[in-house]
TrEMBL record:
It holds the Pfam family Bac_DNA_binding. It comes from Rhizobium esperanzae. GO terms for biological process: DNA recombination; positive regulation of metabolic process; regulation of DNA-templated transcription; regulation of translation. GO terms for molecular function: DNA binding; structural constituent of chromatin. GO terms for cellular component: cytosol. Heterodimer of an alpha and a beta chain. This is Integration host factor subunit alpha. It comes from the Bacteria. Keywords: DNA recombination, DNA-binding, Transcription, Transcription regulation, Translation regulation. This protein is one of the two subunits of integration host factor, a specific DNA-binding protein that functions in genetic recombination as well as in transcriptional and translational control. Belongs to the bacterial histone-like protein family. PANTHER family: DNA-BINDING PROTEIN HU, INTEGRATION HOST FACTOR SUBUNIT ALPHA. CDD domains: IHF_A (cd13835).
Length: 112
């Protein structure tokens, strides 16, 4: 892994370079898209970004958990969680990238 994190600023810079909007307009566009996705998720709607992923809110029931340090049983309250499911297109791209990187890093045995 490269350890690089893609930030909102990185996304805005990419929009600026590829679309040609000003930096300010690019940043506003990125913020608007992220806000719209967040608002839809908060409302409990499913957000599907074709060829990328699906974000969905799921209800989890109350259950009994265990404190790993003390072993004490503790009730975990019901809650809503967001799930992320990568599309098959994204999964394929990740797999191809992994295979290509693996081939690239494979040591070559010199001929005797």
């Amino acid at each position: 892994m490269t350890g690089k994190t893609v930030t909102r600023a990185d996304l805005a810079e990419s929009v600026f370079r590829k679309v040609g909007l000003s930096r300010t307009e690019s940043a506003e566009l990125v913020e608007t898209v992220i806000d719209e996705i967040c608002n839809a998720i908060v409302r409990g709607e499913t957000v599907k970004l074709s060829s990328f992923a699906t974000f969905q809110v799921r209800d989890k029931n109350e259950r009994i958990g265990r404190n790993p340090k003390t072993g004490e049983e503790v009730p975990i309250s019901p809650r809503r969680v967001m799930t992320f499911k990568a599309s098959n297109v994204l999964k394929t791209r990740i797999l191809k990238s992994h295979v290509a990187r693996k081939i690239k890093l494979k040591p070559v045995n010199p001929a005797p």
